[in-house]
Amino acid sequence: MTGREESQAWLPRAAAGAADRRAVEHATDGSPPEGDRTAALADRLFLDAVGALELYTVYLGERLGLYRALADDGPATSSELAGRTGTAERYVREWLEHHAASGLLEVDDPRAEPLARRYRLPPEHVPVLVDTDDLRYQAYMGVDLVRAGRPLPQLVEAFRSGDAPPPLPWEPEGRAEFNRALFLNLLGKQWLPQIPEIDRRLRAEPPARVADIGCGTGWSSISMAQAYPRIAVDGFDLDPDVVVAARANAAGAGVADRVRFSVADASDRSGTGRYDLVTIFEALHDMARPVDALLAARSMLGEAGSVLVADELVADEFTAPAPVLDRYSYGWSVVSCLPAVMGDPATAATGAVMRPATLRRYATEAGFGQTEVLPVETGVWRLYRLVP
Fold it and tell me: Are 384 and 354 in contact (CB under 8 A)?
């Protein structure tokens, strides 16, 4: 095969000759020939490849500060942007051309000579590509997808052995903080105030104590402390690297005097009877032994305390085809969430698609007398309140 043939070998077979253009046109406008399921699937996978490659380039833009430089310092040629970011002009030129061709950036004059073209980040794209505090921020997905791809060869072997692939190192990019904006904008300001029993206790005297299990880089703990200035929060996570990051985030947010972070297993029961509220945000399905984690959470509660769980907003029952959020959760479950827990011989092997019936079963096995699905519309998660 020549290099040209190799570069095109992955395209849908219908895209190989003159008649191919019709299939590619169908792929781009989302309208494959009616009734032709084979062509529809080929076109779908072609578009999936376009999207995956686009996210890889988003990863580069986020990691190299290219978006930030365009947002902060304005339009630039490839040489100017390379100078601002300490990168190589030829690489940056190709990235800029790809982004303009894809509609992520705008170019003043497409017919200008390559080095003379000036590119700009549309202001409407800044919330999505630059502003990490905006609910519409999505550039983290590039980081997520790249990290999910790193262990795929080992995951192939894990599928055969039933074991878990080795854990990913923190570096080079660390974890994407995909829930940061949700927590800072919604958790303490909108969601918790809609839960009367919890909201009242967090505002009352004596100051409430909160345990945040699986706290990650700390934004859930920080947002609760910001919304409720009397409370103290202890965040716990198994990963030492994220705990270091969480401590730095709390210090930067000015709440380190009331928010502390420790490395601890979710099954650790050393905090018996100390807390008015225990939270587990989008973490229970990632735990190999969720019943043990809920047992520990129940043991940590003081009198009249409760546990608040947030997990994926999936359908109550399995359906096929499924809603897009189920498909999204299943994708992460296959490549990340389920593999992460398969190394434990006693694993519950929950996966990311944890439906309400599964959560209720875990809670009952952990000794909770009441499991309530809360009427809080989040758009992304389902909230549960567990009471002993």
Answer: no
Interior/surface letters 89-128, b for 16+ CB within 10 angstroms, e for the rest: eeebbebbbebbeeebbebeeeeeeeeebbbbbeeebbbb
- Quick one: CA torsion of 248, 175, 385, 230, rounded to 10 degrees? 10
Instruction: Read off the pLDDT of residues 45-64 as tens digits, 9 standing for 90 and up.
Output: 999 999 999 999 999 999 99
Higher local confidence (pLDDT), 17 or 307: 307
SS (H, E, C) the chain: CCHHHHHHCCCCHHHCCCCHHHHHHHHHHCCCCCCCHHHHHHHHHHHHHHHHHHHHHHHHHHHCCHHHHHHHHCCECHHHHHHHHCCCHHHHHHHHHHHHHCCCCEECCCCCCHHHCCEECCHHHHHHHCCCCCCCCCCHHHHHHHHHHCCHHHHHHHHHHCCCCCCCCCCCCCCCCCCHHHHHHHHHHHHHHHCHHHHHHHHCCCCCEEEEECCCCCHHHHHHHHHCCCCEEEEEECCHHHHHHHHHHHHHHCCCCCEEEEECCCCCCCCCCCEEEEEEECCHHHCCCHHHHHHHHHHHEEEEEEEEEEEECCCCCCCCCCCHHHHHHHHHHHHHHHHHHCCCCCCCCCCCCCCHHHHHHHHHHCCCCEEEECCCCCCCEEEEEEEC
Question: Whose CA is closest to 238, among 320, 344, 83, 140?
Answer: 344
Name the nearest CA neighbour of 140 among 106, 181, 107, 81.
181
Angle at 249 between CA 245 and CA 255, to 5 degrees: 135
Rounded to 5 degrees, what are φ and ψ at 118? -115, 130
Do 150 and 171 touch, CB atoms closer than 8 A?
no
Angle in degrees, CA 328, 182, 330, rounded to 5: 15
Question: Is the link from the previous residue into 339 a cis peptide, with omega within 30 of 0?
Answer: no
Q: Using only the alpha carbons of the chain, give its radius of gyration.
A: 24
Q: What is the pTM of this model?
A: 0.88
Q: Which of 7-11, 110-114, 304-308, 373-377 has the lowest mean pLDDT?
A: 7-11
Q: Cβ atoms within 10 A of the Cβ of 132, count?
A: 14
